[in-house]
Design goal:
single chain; alpha/beta; 17 helices; 12% strand
C-alpha cells in the first residue's frame, strides 16, 4: 500500500512560526543533556558534572528558597498545617487570608482571568510604596502566568502583521531572546537599537533616533519601544536622566513604551538605584504623565526569590485608552486564569512580613543574603574576567547575569564559520566539552557586528561560581594559545 500523504506537512504550518529564528543555544542545551547522560553511564570526562549557567534559575543551581514564602505555600497547599504549632503565627494568618480569598477556600479553584483581586490590591499597594505615593489602580494590574505571558498579551493586542501597517518594535541589542521570539510570533518587525558597551551598556537617544530613521524605510509602522531596566543580559541600571530622555523620545515619536522591570529588586551596584519608568513619568509632570502610554512588567522568577517554576508575573497599564482596555481584557480572558500557587508567592513578595512580625527577621536576612551573594559574585566575576587576556567585562550593577566580551582570534572565527557556527557558539561548545560549563552564546541575545560575548548566571552559590570562573579562565588561555 502506497504511503499516504500526511494531513499536516510543512506547508500547513503557520508561515510566521516557520520563519521564527530559534536560539542557537538549543544545540548547546541538547549537548549538555547528552554529556550529563554520558557521565551517568560512566563515560570518562575531564570533569565530574555539567554546570548549566546559560539561563537564570538560581534554585536549579543551589540557591535556597525564602522560608516565609515556602511556609505560606505549605499552609495553603495543606490547610491542616494551620492547626499545628510548626508554623509561625504570621505565616498562618497570611495563609488563612489568602485561602479566604480563593473560591471554596482552596488554591485549586479558578479565579478571575486577571488574577485574584486580593493579590492585585497587594501589587497596587506595593507599586505605590515603591514609587513613593504615585497612585496605582488595581484595575490597571493584570496578573499572568509569568512575565513572558504579560509581554505576549501586550504584543498580541498591539502588533499588526500585514501590509504597510506591519508593526515595528524597537528592541535593544543585546536583549531578552524570548521577547524577540514573541514579536516574530505575532508577525511584527524587530527594529534593533544597540546599547553602548563602551559606556557601560548605556541606552543612547542618538541610537534610538538612528534605529527609527532606518525603520521608516522598512515598510513598517514603528509603534512600540521596548526597554529592559535593569538590563538583561547587560546588568546596567538606567539613570533618571536616561529614563527621562527615553520618555521624551517616546512622546515625540508617539511610541507605546514597554518597560521590562523584572530585575528591579536585584540592584547592588555602588550608587545605583532602581527608578521605575512610571515614577519618573509621573515626576515629569502632567504634560507627560497624562499622555505617554506605558506598560511595565514584573515577575516572581527574577528577583531575589527566584521562584521560576511557579510561573507568575504581572503588568500595569498606564494611560491606556478605555476602548483599548476592553480589548486588553478580551485578549487576557483567552488565557483563562493565572496559576494560583504563583499568585500566593506574588502576594508574599508584594506584601512581605513587617517589623515586629515573627517572620520579619528571617525574611529580611534571607533576602539580604541573596542580594549579598549577587553583589559578591558580580565583583568576583568582573575582577576575574578582566584579569584574563582576551576577555573584557563591563561592571555588573544589577540583575543576575554576566555578559563578558570574548576577543576571539581570527583563526577561531574562521574555524567556527567553516563549521557553520556563530563564533561564540563555537566557543561555548568547546567550553562545554572541555570543562562541563554550559554558558550561553551572545549571538543569541544580539551584539554588534564583529563582537563576541557569552552570558552566564551569577545568582548561584559563590563556590559554584568560583569553579565556573576557574574553568573559564583556564579554558580561554588554552583556546587563545591554540588559535593565535
Amino acid at each position: 500500500m502506497a504511503a499516504q500523504r500526511k494531513t499536516v506537512t510543512l506547508l500547513e504550518v503557520n508561515p510566521t512560526i516557520r520563519n521564527m529564528k530559534l536560539p542557537a543555544k538549543g544545540v548547546l542545551v541538547s549537548r549538555a543533556a547528552e554529556i550529563t547522560q554520558e557521565l551517568q553511564q560512566g563515560v570518562p570526562k575531564p570533569f565530574k558534572e555539567v554546570i548549566s549557567v546559560h539561563y537564570g534559575d538560581g534554585h536549579a543551581m543551589g540557591m535556597k528558597p525564602i522560608t516565609f514564602i515556602r511556609q505560606v505555600m505549605a499552609a495553603c497547599f495543606y490547610p491542616e498545617l494551620l492547626d499545628s504549632e510548626q508554623l509561625p503565627d504570621d505565616v498562618k494568618s497570611r495563609a488563612k487570608i489568602l485561602l479566604q480569598k480563593c473560591d471554596g477556600g482552596s488554591i485549586g479553584s479558578y479565579c478571575d482571568s486577571s488574577g485574584l483581586l486580593h493579590v492585585r490590591h497587594s501589587v497596587s499597594r506595593y507599586i505605590e510604596r515603591r514609587d513613593r505615593g504615585v497612585p496605582c489602580d488595581p484595575g490597571d494590574i493584570y496578573i499572568t502566568g509569568g512575565a513572558q505571558r504579560a509581554l505576549q498579551l501586550v504584543l498580541k493586542m498591539l502588533v499588526h502583521s500585514e501590509g504597510h501597517s506591519k508593526t515595528g518594535v524597537l528592541v535593544p541589542v543585546p536583549s531578552y531572546t524570548r521577547f524577540n521570539n514573541a514579536v516574530q510570533e505575532q508577525g511584527g518587525v524587530i527594529l534593533p537599537y544597540h546599547l553602548s558597551e563602551e559606556q557601560g551598556w548605556e541606552l543612547e537617544i542618538e541610537e534610538l533616533q538612528r534605529a527609527l530613521r532606518t525603520a521608516r524605510g522598512q515598510q513598517c509602522s514603528p509603534r512600540v519601544l521596548y526597554v529592559i531596566n535593569p538590563g538583561n543580559p547587560t546588568g546596567q541600571v538606567q539613570s533618571r536622566k536616561s529614563i527621562e530622555e527615553v520618555i521624551r523620545f517616546a512622546a515625540e515619536e508617539k511610541l507605546f513604551l514597554m518597560a521590562d522591570e523584572v530585575y528591579q529588586d536585584n540592584v547592588f551596584g555602588d550608587d545605583c538605584e532602581f527608578l521605575s519608568y512610571k515614577k519618573v513619568l509621573f515626576e515629569m509632570g502632567p504634560e507627560y504623565f497624562h499622555s505617554v502610554e506605558l506598560t511595565s512588567f514584573n515577575s516572581i522568577s527574577k528577583g531575589f526569590a527566584g521562584e521560576c517554576g511557579f510561573r507568575c508575573g504581572y503588568l500595569e497599564f498606564v494611560n491606556l485608552d478605555p476602548q483599548v482596555r476592553r480589548y486588553a481584557h478580551q485578549v487576557n480572558s483567552v488565557e483563562c486564569c493565572p496559576p494560583t500557587p504563583g499568585q500566593i508567592i506574588l502576594d508574599t513578595l508584594m506584601n512581605p512580613p513587617l517589623p515586629g512580625e515573627t517572620s520579619y527577621p528571617s525574611f529580611t536576612a534571607e533576602r539580604q543574603a541573596s542580594l549579598d551573594t549577587l553583589a559578591r559574585n558580580a565583583l568576583l566575576a568582573e575582577q576575574t574576567l578582566n584579569s584574563v587576556p582576551g576577555i573584557s567585562c563591563v561592571p555588573v550593577q544589577a540583575a543576575m547575569y554576566c555578559f563578558p566580551r570574548i576577543h576571539m582570534p581570527s583563526r577561531a572565527v574562521q574555524r567556527a564559520q567553516a563549521q557553520g557556527l556563530a563564533p561564540d557558539l563555537f566557543y561555548c561548545l568547546r567550553l562545554l566539552e572541555e570543562t562541563g560549563v554550559a554558558a550561553g552564546p551572545g549571538s543569541d541575545l544580539g551584539q554588534r557586528e564583529g563582537t563576541h560575548h557569552i552570558r552566564f548566571c551569577i545568582l548561584i552559590p559563590t563556590e559554584t561560581l568560583q569553579v565556573v570562573l576557574s574553568s573559564l579562565k583556564s579554558f580561554h588561555l588554552k583556546f587563545m594559545q591554540e588559535f593565535s
